[in-house]
């Protein structure tokens, strides 16, 4: 149960390679649902917590369509923009409710024309991938600073089980940061994306 700085660095490196679906990974031709789920499984398998976890299933895709998180499918095939929306949904659903995701993606979906084309969606998605890489670096630096703060805090009092205390506080602080970020995202959605009559 010993956690030290070197162990933390190794864990951070391990989770920093979460996989991604780059715009160049999405074929120019439309894909059937099985091809879409295979693409997600291949490219995002590193983000699974357990080997048996599902990245994307047919049921999920159908539910996203019913919830109007995706534009209607033509000929049982998914185009590049629909696949980009699925990647965004995959990332967002880790933290946000389906209702919040719908409010957030609605302006993007509204920019798609009848052929599901939008330059805005491509640009936002590419920027998101770039920022995601930078965010991993910031997260790693921030986590190490928090870990050092935890060690400093623990040195101030006598703990009968310092290693357990260090591990617990590390998890508590990570969850606290995640909660703060989630609440900030929800506040932005409530202030800028929610219907005004609420």
Automatic annotation (TrEMBL):
Species of provenance: Clostridium omnivorum
InterPro entries in UniProt: DUF1836 (IPR014975)
Superkingdom: Bacteria
Protein name: DUF1836 domain-containing protein
Pfam families from the UniProt entry: DUF1836
């Amino acid at each position: 149960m010993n956690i030290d700085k070197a162990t933390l660095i190794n864990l951070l490196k391990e989770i920093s390679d979460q996989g991604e679906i780059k715009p160049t990974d999405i074929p120019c031709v439309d894909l059937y649902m099985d091809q879409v789920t295979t693409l997600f499984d291949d490219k995002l398998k590193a983000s699974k917590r357990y080997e048996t976890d599902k990245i994307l299933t047919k049921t999920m895709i159908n539910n996203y369509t019913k919830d109007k998180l995706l534009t209607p499918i033509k000929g049982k095939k998914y185009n590049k923009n629909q696949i980009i929306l699925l990647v965004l949904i995959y990332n967002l659903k880790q933290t946000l409710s389906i209702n919040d995701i719908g409010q957030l993606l609605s302006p993007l979906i509204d920019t798609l024309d009848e052929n599901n084309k939008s330059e805005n969606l491509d640009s936002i998605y590419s920027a998101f991938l770039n920022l995601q890489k930078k965010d991993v670096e910031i997260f790693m630096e921030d986590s190490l600073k928090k870990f050092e703060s935890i060690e400093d805090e623990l040195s101030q009092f006598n703990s009968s089980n310092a290693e357990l205390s260090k591990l617990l506080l590390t998890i508590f602080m990570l969850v606290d940061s995640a909660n703060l970020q989630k609440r900030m995202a929800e506040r932005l959605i409530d202030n800028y994306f929610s219907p005004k009559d609420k």
